[in-house]
Amino acid sequence: MEGTDPVNKKLAAVLSGGAVLVLALSGCSDDSGKTDEWAKKVCDDLQPQHAKINEANQDIVEATRTGKSPDEVKKADAASFKKVSDAYKAMARAVQQAGAPPVDDGEKMRKDAVKELDTISGKYNDLVTAVEKVPTGDTFDEGIDSVAAKLAALGKRGDTALRRLSTGEVGQAMAKQESCKKTGLTKKGS
């Protein structure tokens, strides 16, 4: 079990990065009422999903801190990846249901963000299967390290659509929303 703690910390760090990627939906401020309404709806729906991703992160870290067996670590990691997958899926639904932001290219921004969120959800679901297949014997740490590498690659996925969604008027409106501020991703004083 000796190498497990640093490896699971890697998993947690990359998981955190994924949450930041999705919830980098922030910017400065804007005065457009319709854009503010859209941003409030999206932010209110994304905030609980961000909390679920943070909980999943903590579950991974906790599994190693408590010195759990490889089987218990696998089970905790798989449950965490499933929780993250579900959160991304819920984020995709939230953006879909909010409709297009009332800005130029709003429909394209929405579609691109929903597609990206759905894809990320599927990739986290793939990690559930990958971690469940990790052998618990002498190669456990290597197997978990392999899962961490897949997670790192997922964290580096193209996030162009999400970054576009958080730019300009939309990003400015989102930065004003308390529920987006609660994610800790808006800059103080924005």
Describe the protein in words.
- With 190 residues, the protein is mainly alpha-helical.
- It has a single domain, classed as A middle domain of Talin 1 (Up-down Bundle).
- 75% of the residues lie in helices and 0% in strands.
- Helix 1 runs parallel beside helix 5, helix 2 crosses helix 7 and helix 4 packs antiparallel against helix 5.
- The longest helix has 33 residues.
Return the domain count.
1
Q: Give me the Rg, rounded.
A: 18 Å
- Secondary-structure class: mainly alpha
**CATH topology, what is it called?**
A middle domain of Talin 1
Tell how many strands the DSSP assignment holds: 0
Whole-Å distance between the termini?
45 Å
Helix content: over 70%
* Count of separate DSSP helical elements: 8
Overall 3D form: elongated
What is the H/E string? HHHHHHHH
So, CATH architecture?
A: Up-down Bundle
Low-confidence stretches: 23-31, 184-190
Compute the average pLDDT.
77
- Strand % is under 5%
Note the main sheet: none
The top-level CATH class is Mainly Alpha
